[in-house]
Design a protein that fits this description.
Blueprint: E1 2-8, E2 11-18, E3 28-31, E4 40-41, E5 46-47, H1 56-78, H2 84-102, H3 107-120, H4 124-162, H5 166-190
Antiparallel strand pairs: 1-2, 1-3, 4-5
Helix pairs in contact: 1-4, 1-5, 2-3, 2-4, 3-4, 4-5
């Protein structure tokens, strides 16, 4: 099978495959396998169309949006095991558990700890201690990862903003994606 291209206004407007021994239809030109629709034809050679030039400031804005999206993705990956609703309860539960153990809990804080403990089949003291320990361990890990995410975002944004040419911008994006990949791999390796 061979390929034939229909040319309209100097560009490939349609492609067909025909048997090797069949004649090329009138108004069509034999083309090699790499020819695509919208390629430019000068009467002898097919060339891909020129890539549209994105204005530099638009390219920088797009790159900054990519950095922000990677930052958000990292935070989502960090907290993927907990819903937003659950995460919203963490500070309240930690505060209630600390107050409960210190003997300064309000009636509402005491009710929170005792009700959850009863539902989980453990003592209120054990639940409060578990919440405090988990909160302290997770706080340390989350703070570290949140700091990593913020550093990643800051370095990516700084590199994009410092770029003076399209080549500089491309180099900044490539460096950012290498750094982001390493951060995501570290995050994935540290989660169970």
């Amino acid at each position: 099978m061979k390929k034939a291209a229909q040319i309209t206004d100097g560009c490939v407007s349609n492609l067909i495959r025909i048997e090797d021994d069949a004649p090329v239809p009138e108004g069509w030109v034999e083309a090699d396998a790499a020819v695509r629709i919208n390629d430019v034809y000068d009467g002898q050679t097919f060339t891909p169309p020129a890539a549209p030039v994105v204005p530099f400031e638009d390219a920088k804005a797009n790159a900054l949006a990519e950095v922000n999206a990677a930052h958000a993705s990292y935070l989502r990956a960090l907290l993927e095991s907990a819903s937003q609703e659950e995460r919203d309860t963490w500070p309240i539960k930690a505060s209630a558990a600390k107050a409960y153990m210190a003997g300064t809990a309000t009636d509402a804080q005491t009710a929170l700890i005792e009700t959850e403990a009863a539902g989980g089949g453990i003592s209120p003291d054990d639940l409060a201690e578990k919440i405090i320990n988990k909160n302290e361990l997770e706080d340390a890990a989350y703070h570290d990862h949140i700091g990593q995410a913020a550093a990643l975002r800051a370095s990516g944004r700084a590199a994009v903003k410092a770029a003076a040419t399209h080549d500089d911008l491309q180099a900044a994006r490539e460096a950012f994606y290498a750094e982001a990949l390493a951060a995501f791999q570290t995050l994935a390796g540290g989660q169970s």
